[in-house]
Amino acid sequence: MIDLKGKVAVVFGLANKRSIAWAIAQKLSEAGASLAICYQSERLQRDAEELAADLPDAKTFRCDVTLDTDIDTVFEQLKTTYGKLDILVHSIGFAPNIKNTVLQTAREDFRIAHDISAYSLIALARAAEPLMPEGGSILTLTYYGAEKVFPNYNIMGVAKAALEATVRYLAADLGTKKIRVNAISAGPIKTLAARGIGDFTKILNAVEERAPLHRNVDALEVGNAALFLTSDLASGITGEITFVDCGYNTTGL
């Protein structure tokens, strides 16, 4: 059993009980970590507080990752509250007008998608680094649409490709500080964010048909992988994209 007692984990992007971030938070908490849950705005505050109430020793903090002032403020709060960080989970992604094809993507929509989905990892990692003097683990969430074209994923796929490259470069930048940076490429899961992808059910059906396990992945399975990757058992793993998709990415026809 993985033991995270004495570890402090901060999770960004927890929106509701269907989110992958919630599954990860549950698994980290079960392993004994102290949890800091960051929500984007006052609109999401109640949901975050209700979820945090279900986890022992969990606290909530507000942070809009598009604002450097918010990032500075929340990491000062984390420093005051915990004194250190051991784990950072980045479960954030957004693309405006995702129904537009890549060809039709407006310049501003491209900027927003990359700012929120990819640059935010850089900004959070930079702020977390001083609170990880003895090393730590940073984990983000991506999707196979970064490597292959999926119908209706559009500019989000381009942004996720940028995120995956960011993981590798941050791993190189932070390796000498004993901070590992990895990503999980989760299979499709019925989250609130997934509702914005057209014909999402077709993707679920395709995975069930073609994946070696002939089913879709459960969010808690992603949580289990996150627990491993953020623990000392994965001390030699960094800069990697780990698939948790029932093997779908390994198939051809």
Supply the key terms.
7-stranded parallel beta sheet; 253 residues; globular; 7 helices; 40% helix; Rossmann fold; alpha/beta
Describe what you observe in this structure.
It is a single chain. By secondary structure, the chain is an alpha/beta fold. It has a single domain, classed as Rossmann fold. It is globular. α5 links the parallel β5 and β6. It starts with 7 loop residues before the first strand and ends in a 9-residue tail after the last strand. A 7-stranded parallel sheet has the order 3-2-1-4-5-6-7, sandwiched between helices. The protein has helices spanning 20-30, 45-53, 68-82, 107-128, 155-174, 200-210, 219-230, and strands spanning 8-12, 34-39, 58-62, 87-90, 136-142, 179-186, 241-244. Pathway: Lipid metabolism; fatty acid biosynthesis. It catalyses: a 2,3-saturated acyl-[ACP] + NAD(+) = a (2E)-enoyl-[ACP] + NADH + H(+).
